[in-house]
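The methods section describes the discrete structure representation at length, but only in general terms. The central task, working out the structure tokens from the amino acid sequence alone, is never made concrete. Nothing conveys this as quickly as seeing an actual entry. For illustration, here is how one protein appears when written out as sequence plus structure tokens:
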Amino acid sequence: MKKININRSTLFAAILFLAAGILIGWLIKPGHDHQAEAANTSQEQTAAAIWTCSMDPQVRQSEPGKCPLCGMDLIPLEPDTEAGKPLALKMSPTAMQLANVQTATVGYGMPTRELRLNGKVQPDERRVYSQVSHLEGRVEQLLVNFTGEPVRQGQKLGTLYSPTLVTAQEELLAAKQIQDMQPALFRAAREKLKNWKLSDSQIDNILAAGKVQERFPILADVSGLVMAKKVNLGDYLMRGMPLYDIADLSRVWVLFDVYESDMPWVKVGSTINFEIQALPGQTFTGKVSFIDPVIDPVTRVATARVEMVNPGGRLKPEMFAGGTIKTKLSGQKESIVAPKSAVLWTGERSVVYVKNTTVQGVQFSMREVTLGPLVGDGYVVKSGLKPGEEIAVSGAFSIDAAAQLAGKPSMMAPQGSGRSPANTPDVSSSKAMKAAVQKLFDRYFPLKDALVSGNFGEAKSRAAQLKKVLEQTPMTIFEGAAHQPWMNSSNASKTALNKISKAGDLEAARSAFKPLSEQMVALARTFGPFETTIFVQHCPMADDNIGANWLSLDKAIRNPYFGDKMLKCGSVTETIR
């Protein structure tokens, strides 16, 4: 074997090179691990990214793609930086400015409301009289010939020829001749003429003349203005027949209309300041002396009466009056009052957005509140807010829209909408579901139109048809995650349709139409979109100013809750394309 000779210097150099390599590798190892960790973190963040749909924010996916509901491209959802408050929505100052968000601090106050009322001047019913004929006969002369002419008590209105009165005068003159022998007969003949409203002086004139008078004057029983003329020259009158309607306008009534929702604010004794359109610049003050105990079934108003002295007849019947009344709600103590613009309505719930300022920035949290009566530009808050809390009074809808996109609790999704696609009904893949829901809509829209036109009988008939279709829809069509939403809406819809079918009048049917519409809106959102565009419309004045929704195929507003009274009251709040 050949022996290999290794130089000591060469061996030393190799050992030194190996040691250097180990040292360099040890020095660069931490940096390498850091880069690998950063790469792993980036991959985890990419894998954990959530993708959502701008039109259907309830959709959540872990990777990009198409929305299973509307087919739009999914967009990445911004990560929730408020780990400590996952239900709060963070907004930057720029976002608040663009959304025109303004806030105010709530506190205690005495609920006082300034109520505006409309009314008319009317005659005092206690001072309206019928001038009747006290005799039977033919009208020979009329001295008061037109409506509006003033008359005084005792004034001669015309003359009358009465055959009956001629006979009675002959009896009186005959009885006078035997007065000494038959005084009772004379008194009876005299009283007979007095019962026909002849005065003692007129009877004495007949006796003094000693002959029968053929024509007798018709004298006014009261003073006032002629409101209606009911007799013409030559008419033959029966005893008790009305000649004129006469009203004493020295005192008049001003009758103001009070709607049902305003009844708690108007009491007997309340002071009303009002103006008359025909008398600009003049302000009148009066007190409510009487309120009708019954509400008009057609106009849904009661009448509040103010009695006024009317010197010179300035206040004329049928003049329009506009009044204001400032009053405190009886039985109320100091309460929290929230502006109307701060409250969002959805079905039976009302919510506000409360502002919280932290070191991380400004946050808004949805808060459900219980409201009392409307007081001016705000509502009494019975529960849900505390004095000193700051709420959004402008831009609340923008905050709610941002909360929906972020999957936070919002007025339509109180628990948040952070649901995965697995929990979202894939209605786009089931034609049977869409067809079943479409049949309901085909009966719902004619029912809505019947309520718009005020056709009570047609509305009940359409409700019966919709109920029949609903009951005939098989539950087996709605499988998986779609089953529970269908069951919830169908059961509630049947209850509302039963109320419409049993309604005694149009108002009761319209009241039951609200919960039915809420369920139809829920079905449209869950199982849409459909072949035609459906508009969700909202009237804030329906249900005593609580508000109510309904569906329509037309963007134009035709209000089913008020009909012709407020046909165009409402707005489009959502479009289901």
Q: What stands out?
A: The two ends are 93 Å apart (CA to CA). The first strand starts at residue 51 and ends at 52. The longest helix spans residues 8-48.
